């Protein structure tokens, strides 16, 4: 009897999580070895923070694209990104009911090849130790983004999650609630949420949509009408 597609997908996502974890840990060892030989504590801290910020920006951009463009039945991208974000708007609490592999599998599939590429860059010497540390931090934050997002919706998140939320290191529930309370047209960043005030004040994604609207082919990819806040001032 053939295995249902859903079960194949779950197996693939579980495998991706393990592959990501193995690759990431090997890269961590590689970077640590180099840093032990040549310690740079302040620069290392800056590199790690830069990675976490970069992850917030990337997650925000991906979330915005998934909310505003493409249809859920788009090949590959639809099942991987578009459909989960749309379903999340319909039932925001469902993300908190999924297990670790269901929540993290998609991101592991997307980020594992990036970690593999970082290994290649480390091997050839194309990247120094600090850019590698930034990549290491960004990949871990991107991998964990859906988990941070799920914890922001969980009625009773784990103690670690509450501590990280309280410290402001990961997405806070109150800050993310803005995305769901309004028209899903702001606060797209769901890793730390640090960039939301800046991006929203700059109306970054709204401006990007206006720019994309000038390209007829690209405009057709948009799922709905003009940006919900089009024509309004900054919030
Ligand atoms: Zn949410
Ligand atoms: Zn959304």
Give the tally of structural domains.
1
Looking at the structure, what is the overall shape? Answer: globular
- H and E string: HHHHHHHHHH
Our measurement of the CA-to-CA distance between the termini, rounded to an integer number of angstroms, reads: 55 Å
**Nearest-angstrom radius of gyration?**
19 Å
Low-confidence stretches: 230-235
Protein structure class = mainly alpha
Percent in helix: 55-70%
Briefly, what is this?
This protein is an all-alpha fold. It is 69% helix and 0% strand. It has one domain.
Topology readout:
Elements: H1 5-37, H2 41-68, H3 77-90, H4 100-124, H5 129-153, H6 159-166, H7 173-181, H8 196-202, H9 204-213, H10 216-219
Helix pairs in contact: 1-4, 1-5, 2-3, 2-5, 4-5, 5-7
The protein binds zinc ion (2 copies).
The site of one zinc ion has 6 residues, from helix 5 and helix 7.
Verbal overview:
This protein has helices at 5-37, 41-68, 77-90, 100-124, 129-153, 159-166, 173-181, 196-202, 204-213, 216-219. By secondary structure, the protein is mainly α. The protein has one domain. α1 (5-37) crosses α5 (129-153) and α4 (100-124) runs antiparallel to α5. It binds zinc ion (ZN) (2 copies).
């Amino acid at each position: 009897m053939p295995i249902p597609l859903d079960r194949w997908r779950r197996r693939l996502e579980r495998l991706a999580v393990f592959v990501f974890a193995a690759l990431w840990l090997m890269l961590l060892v590689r970077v640590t070895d180099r840093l032990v030989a040549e310690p740079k504590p302040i620069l290392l801290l800056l590199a790690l923070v830069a990675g976490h910020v970069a992850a917030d920006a990337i997650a925000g951009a991906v979330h915005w694209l998934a909310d505003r463009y493409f249809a859920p039945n788009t090949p590959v991208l639809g099942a991987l990104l578009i459909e989960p974000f749309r379903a999340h708007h319909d039932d925001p609490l469902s993300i908190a009911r999924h297990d670790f592999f269901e929540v993290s599998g998609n991101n592991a599939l997307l980020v594992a090849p990036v970690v593999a590429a970082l290994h290649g860059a480390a091997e050839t010497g194309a990247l120094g130790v600090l850019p590698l540390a930034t990549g290491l931090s960004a990949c871990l934050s991107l991998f964990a983004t859906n988990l941070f997002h799920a914890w922001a919706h969980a009625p009773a998140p784990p103690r670690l999650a509450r501590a990280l939320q309280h410290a402001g290191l990961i997405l806070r529930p109150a800050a993310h609630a803005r995305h769901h309370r309004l028209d899903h047209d702001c606060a797209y960043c769901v890793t730390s949420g640090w960039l939301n005030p800046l991006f929203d004040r700059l109306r970054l994604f709204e401006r990007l949509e206006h720019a994309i609207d000038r390209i007829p082919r690209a405009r057709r990819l948009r799922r709905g009408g003009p940006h919900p806040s089009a024509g309004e001032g900054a919030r």
